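Sequence decides. Our protein:
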Amino acid sequence: MTVRFVKTFGGPPFTAFRGQFTFVNHGSAPVSGWVLWASFAGDVFDWVYNGPPGGGPFMDSQTQHGFLILRATRSETIPAGGQLTVLVQAEGRTLSPLSCSFDGTSC
């Protein structure tokens, strides 16, 4: 499993940004029920959405004090050999995660 974050818009001189997490499953079995934890010190998240092709709000996300926690539901299962994209928008100056973990493994 590979987890990558890319800022897609914003940053200085702006105080808001958009970005995307991309989860790539290199295995031969689907990955479901996963949890992502990411620290964006002091940032406030405006929204968290599933990327294409499904779109729509991420079903189980928590954001508080610069922390982002995503818990996968059935619609966020990452297929074998496939990928999932999650889009975020936040206000703050931490433009990429200071730390993150995917199912307890550092990413």
